[in-house]
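Chain A, query sequence.
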Amino acid sequence: MTNYSSNDIAIAIINWNGKHLLEQFLPSVTKYSGDATVYIIDNASSDESIPFIEANYPQVKTIILDDNYGYAGGYNKGIGQISEPIICCLNNDVEVTNDWLDPIIDSFNRDHTCAIMQPKILDYKNPESFEYAGAAGGFVDKYGYPFCRGRLFNAIEQDNGQYDDEREIFWASGACLFIKKTVFTNLKGFDAEFFAHIEEIDLCWRAFNTGYTVKYNGKSKIYHVGGSTLKNSNPQKTFLNFRNSLYALLKNTPSPSKLIFMRLLLDGIAGVRFLVHLQPRHFLAIIKAHLSFYKNFSKIQSKRTYTKNKQGSYFKITSAVWLYFVLRIKVLKEL
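Chain A, predicted structure.
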């Protein structure tokens, strides 16, 4: 069995016009990552990102792409040029901590069935709280709505050590996702059709359907700003989240027809809620998402990966929407 060290890790940071973020967050990555190799995968930035790296971080390797391929396509093209056996996909708005790699390496060495792993993700602006994008490991409900230990929709828990464990999860956050290079290759990487958002859930879903294990290790922690590329107030983010969620359901679930029908109804309710809260652009973004889904239905359907490997065991709860919006439950203590 392989015994990994930090020398076997490539920290791959996707970047697009993020010089100001690299100035702020790259120092912690280079300081606390031991012998790991740091790569910047640049989506054809028009700012001074690359000159800044070349002038200040000669030890950081750059992979310069010819266009903006988004998160999914950018990583696919960049990781294709990386040879290390473990890849850490890390956002450019993340501050890492001293020895953050040690628990991850230890987990990979102890559990050779583990293919993907996530650390504890805390909020950079509010360090005592979990961060929205990943928190303490992700799951989905029966209708494909993602949630995390430590975060149910917009209800975010304080970090009181309640998730300082190591356990199997369903999906790992794209803000900081460790994956074995062989697994990434076998799964054919992220689905570039997603461009950005939900692509890590789709990747982990395909990994699950293939028989791989995804884990969380709360002994490793990072601090994530979140929303640095697309703010929650941006309708484009609404469009990508709603469309890509439908893509993931169609590709990965055992009975997509019924689930998608219910999800479309729930999306309609969400659209009405946007109108009630005087957010018509987000309402229109949902309509646009549905139209894009119908347009690309056949293409996405051809990518179905579902097998009967672990049928249904990823549904930890039936409906996160029902629990959160109707029963007013904000914390899921047991999964």
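The longest helix spans residues 256-276. The chain has two domains: 8-224, 235-326.
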